[in-house]
Amino acid sequence: MGDIFGSGAMTITGLWLLYFYIEVAGLSPAAAASIFAIAKIWDGITDPVMGYITDNIRSRWGRRRLFFIIGAPFSLTFALMWISGYGYFWYLGTYLLFSTVFTLLMVPYDTLPSEMTNRYETRSKMSGARMLFAQATAFLSALIPGQILAHVADKDQAFMLIGITFAVLFSLPWIFVWRGTWERENLPPPQTQTGLLSTLKSLYREMLSTFRLKTFRIHIMMYVGGAVALDIFGSLFMHFMTYVLQISAGLASQALSLMTLFQFLAIPVFTWLCIRVGNGHAYKAAIGMILISLVYFSQLSASYASIGMLVLVGAVMMGIARGGTYLIPWNVYNFLPDVDEAYTGVRREGIYAGVMMLTRKFSQALALFIVGLALESFGFTKGVTTQSSSAIEGIWWVFVVGPGVLAVMAMCGAFRFRLSQSRHQVLISELERLRAGGEPEDASPETKEVVETLTGHPHSNANWAYRPTHEVTLTPATTSV
Fold it and tell me: Tens of pLDDT along 254-313?
């Protein structure tokens, strides 16, 4: 249920915020783009800091779940971003506030599958379950704003109503998330540093150390390629439909809703594929559908008599592709701390969640930044019903070619991905042996091959400084509380 906020907030900002900044708030495309760029500098500080804190804090309420209670009331500040009539610094400040609240809640939330179970199949099902909530909310994030805009003539009032509606919706799930989850017990002692500067140095050293893992580098290649491709596609969808294909905003909103509906319907299918054929092969299918959909949209023209129906067909195809592309990287993330532990000997779910969250927000901001600058450079004029031929041509190129190049990058990563269910089982068995006091050099040849394939390092280089005298256990919340 935490992804009611996580996915919903990212979806509504990705689909509507750039449009709001330019068409309603009156910012230039370049000014709107700069807000996203500045926010990412801020996220570069807050996301890894939050990951570091949740790895090392110890409290009677846990090290992750504590922040659900703290952060839930602040999710209501989401509404402040959608108030019109203010200047640039209001929108910059409210977006920075939203980014901070998002970090406070979602970094600890993303660690939960790794905290709650070691089983590959169970984690995959948990990822599928959270993505059902995510895509259902994504559907609402496309449908509700479109309906409000269709029935409220004043766009200022419409977007304020959109902000209030979703702020309330985003605040509701966290008590249930807190009550219905649990964390590991018998944790290693927290890392300690002397002074703020030493702590920050350690933090960023840890953040950069995640890229030492071969599997994580490939994973980021897949994740960023697919996510930025879809962010560019989504942020320009309304502009492409209304200016290039010249269909009504109402029909474009219907297509957007249909696309997010099929995102939701695709989640069980891709969850099944992840379990049956593995994350890498399932991701190839999802990215392949993105490429097919982009080629399809590139062939559409405003002159076609049945353009409305053709757009809806394309929305269905892209919706299925989006479901798999959003699901699979976050399913893969659940297994990265296991690969990391095989090399470092410690559990660092929090720091990986921080890096992943930073990557996700950076990728979306990069997409919106690229789109904003591209619209400016091609001569896009805000607030008019028709655009110049150069602006329309620019929208076409950014909408079709930009996501296509990034999708190819994601596909290259998928072909290099090696973390399968069978390899994960070998990895878990080896972690249990090492936790019991075994030495890395005593591993079997098969185990060494698996660990070295996934980490990209000789297994003999593993750093097992922490060796607990008994296995780390997973205990339900009712017991730990």
Answer: 888 888 889 888 988 998 998 888 899 999 999 999 999 999 999 999 889 899 999 999
The first and second tokens of residue 45, run together, are 């500080």
**Residue 469: what pLDDT?**
38
pLDDT at 197: 59
Distance between CA atoms of residues 200 and 100, nearest Å: 18
Report the length, in residues, of the chain. Answer: 481
d(Cα 269, Cα 287) in Å, to the nearest integer? 15
Alpha helices, H only, 240-306:
249-277, 279-298
* Nearest-angstrom CA–CA distance, 368 and 231: 7
Measured CA to CA, the distance from residue 34 to residue 365 in angstroms comes to: 9
Task: Kindly write down the DSSP assignment for every residue of 363-402, as one continuous string.
Answer: HHHHHHHHHHHHHHHTT--TT-SS--HHHHHHHHHHHHHH
Pair 249, 242: CB distance under 8 Å: yes
Give CA–CA dist 260/140, Å, rounded: 8
Residue 463 is predicted with a pLDDT of 67
Of 132-136, 250-254, 431-435, 472-476, which range is least confident?
A: 472-476
Residue 67 has pLDDT above 70, yes or no: yes
Q: How many degrees, rounded to 5, is the angle at CA 371 between CA 368 and CA 375?
A: 140
Q: Which of 32, 30, 5 is nearest to 16 (CA)?
A: 32
Tokens of 232: 């560019």
Write down the residue that tokens 């009032």 correspond to.
157
Query: Is 272 strand, coil or helix?
Result: helix
Give helix then strand counts, H and E, for the chain.
Answer: 20, 0
